[in-house]
Amino acid sequence: MQYGTGLMMTELLRMGEVVSSWLWTRHSLNRNHRINKRPKRQAIIREYPLTREQKREIDDFFVKNYGRKIPFDWHRFYAAHSGVFCAQYFPEYIFYTYFERFMNPEDSYNEVLADKNFLPYVAQAAGVRMPRTVLSFSKGLYRDGDGRPMDRDSVPALLKGRGKLFCKPSRGSFGGKRCFCLDFGHPETDIDAALEGLGREFVIQELVGCAPSIKAVYPDAVNTFRVTTYRWKDGYYVIPAVMRIARDGAVVDNASAGGMFVAISDDGYLRGDAITMDNQRFAAHPDTHLVFDGHRIDGFEKVREAALRMHAMLPPMGVIGWDFTLDEQGRPVLIEANIMRNMFYFCQMSPGIPAFGERTAEVLQWIRKMKRIPYHERREHAFGN
């Protein structure tokens, strides 16, 4: 009887996973199509009409490898930013709905790694620096920078006189929302009010001083590199990286918060113009007037190495977007990890390189196969197998 009950529970759990996966797929498809139909985005798409030959090239490539035609809007959107047509551009809706889901199927891992209070322990094991935590608050528990629990009444004394610190939610800070600097050394700073405003899950960290070659671009924010790594068969690979840059006095560099981004080569040279999500182009930074193209970020190759080292610590995860900077000594500093809805496509907008390069056809063929495989058998074919 107990054996039969166990089988029934296993089947119920499996059915629940299948239903959850189906609901996620429908939600993701609907969400991406809604984003694609936003008026600002459609205005950018209209800037790049495709020729008959270009449409045929996209159709032929995706029918051959993905098994069906796709809407052209994503290719037009990337090409409108980059000025470069490429049939191998990887559409967001396929990446978010299928690639991310198939590569990161374990919701429990996704939830844990999305928590900024947990990531420092993985980074420490990998020998990768992160900003020093001064205070965190999670699940009703305050902890100091060494992870020791503390009571609420002791918190003001910990923060008072610390000077400027960076405050952000420990979950859900997409686009730099609710991220800000606060001067805890200023006599008018109301610490109690600040803590109330931070909500139920947050982390307060020391500021990071950036390397001179980063400060030269824009000195008033921690400008970061989005480095997306993915596990494919027996190796780890990097989607072409971009540097994200703040402007106009902002302290966050997120593209969705008005920042810009520019391509960066594997050896650290910025390439071409910086662009924004609404397709503004800048040959030079509007505040510092530094010309982007050809400016070298010293030590960038160490960022790529650190990102790959971090991912190797997390073998159940197939794709992760890392935000790194370089400190004043030129050492990589991990700011955070992005598990789902990773902004992988920046490289397709600047400078116009397909995210998976020569592996694009193989990735599409794998997604096509995974969509046909029963849910409970997909793990046997994970990571491109």
Task: Please summarize what this structure is.
The protein is built from 13 helices and 13 strands.
Structural summary, described in words:
This protein has helices at 2-36, 39-45, 52-65, 73-82, 92-103, 107-113, 119-126, 155-159, 191-198, 212-215, 300-312, 346-349, 360-372; strands spanning 133-138, 141-144, 149-150, 164-169, 180-183, 202-206, 224-232, 235-245, 260-264, 270-275, 281-282, 319-326, 332-338. It has 385 residues and is of the alpha+beta class. Among the domains are: 108-129 and 210-349, 2-Layer Sandwich (D-amino Acid Aminotransferase, Chain A, domain 1), CATH 3.30.470.20; 133-206. The chain has a seven-stranded antiparallel β-sheet with strand order 11-10-9-8-7-12-13. It has a six-stranded antiparallel β-sheet with strand order 3-2-1-6-4-5. The radius of gyration is 22 Å and the shape is globular. The mean pLDDT is 88.
Strand and helix layout:
Layout: H1 2-36, H2 39-45, H3 52-65, H4 73-82, H5 92-103, H6 107-113, H7 119-126, E1 133-138, E2 141-144, E3 149-150, H8 155-159, E4 164-169, E5 180-183, H9 191-198, E6 202-206, H10 212-215, E7 224-232, E8 235-245, E9 260-264, E10 270-275, E11 281-282, H11 300-312, E12 319-326, E13 332-338, H12 346-349, H13 360-372
Antiparallel strand pairs: 1-2, 1-6, 2-3, 4-5, 4-6, 7-8, 7-12, 8-9, 9-10, 10-11, 12-13
Helix pairs in contact: 1-5, 2-4
